[in-house]
């Protein structure tokens, strides 16, 4: 019982962590980020990766060993929709992450990053879509937990 509660806590913390880091990146990104802003965005992106890893590992442990049992989840269309949305968020996040990593050459030398033409807009659109998909995944999780679709 306690282990189940601890894993649920870790799962929810990772979900909130992912949303907060993506939301921060969305809000902090500007067409001409300062060095401090760029470093904070880069740190958030690393935290995003950590939270995503925790979410996947803990989530699958919960499915396999706790909660309602794997049959409940694997037969629920909203579980599959939630995972699909999460995978899409992960795939979408590749573009901003690569861009933020490339900023490292500039930020390492104490310079703010210079964004290429259209790069700001592309990153913002991707982050906006990620946030929408994360909200969709939360809706799917709520429907799934209540057995909707079974």
What is the terminal separation in angstroms? 26 Å
How would a crystallographer describe the biggest sheet? none
Q: What would you report as the Rg, rounded to the nearest angstrom?
A: 17 Å
Number of domains: 1
Number of strands: 0
Strand content: under 5%
**Helical content, roughly?**
over 70%
In terms of topology, how is this protein built?
Blueprint: H1 2-28, H2 35-65, H3 70-74, H4 77-92, H5 94-102, H6 104-107, H7 119-145
3D structure, described in words:
This protein has 150 residues and is mostly helical. It has one domain (2-145). Helices cover 79% and strands 0% of the residues. The protein is built from seven helices and no strands. The protein has helices at 2-28, 35-65, 70-74, 77-92, 94-102, 104-107, 119-145. α1 (2-28) runs antiparallel to α2 (35-65), α1 (2-28) packs antiparallel against α7 (119-145) and α4 packs antiparallel against α7 (119-145). The longest helix has 31 residues, at 35-65. The protein is elongated. It starts with a helix and ends in a 5-residue tail after the last helix. The mean pLDDT is 94.
């Amino acid at each position: 019982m306690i282990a189940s509660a601890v894993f649920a806590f870790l799962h929810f913390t990772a979900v909130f962590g992912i949303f907060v880091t993506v939301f921060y990146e969305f809000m902090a990104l500007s067409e001409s980020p300062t060095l401090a802003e760029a470093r904070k965005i880069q740190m958030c992106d690393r935290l995003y990766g950590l939270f995503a890893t925790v979410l996947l590992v803990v989530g699958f442990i919960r499915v396999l060993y706790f909660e309602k049992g794997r049959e409940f989840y694997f037969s629920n269309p909203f579980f599959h929709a939630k995972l699909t949305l999460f995978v899409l968020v992960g795939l979408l996040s590749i573009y901003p992450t690569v861009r933020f990593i490339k900023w490292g050459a500039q930020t390492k030398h104490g310079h703010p990053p210079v964004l290429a033409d259209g790069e700001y807009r592309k990153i913002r659109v991707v982050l906006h879509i990620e946030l929408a998909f994360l909200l969709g995944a939360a809706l799917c999780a709520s429907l799934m937990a209540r057995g909707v679709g079974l």
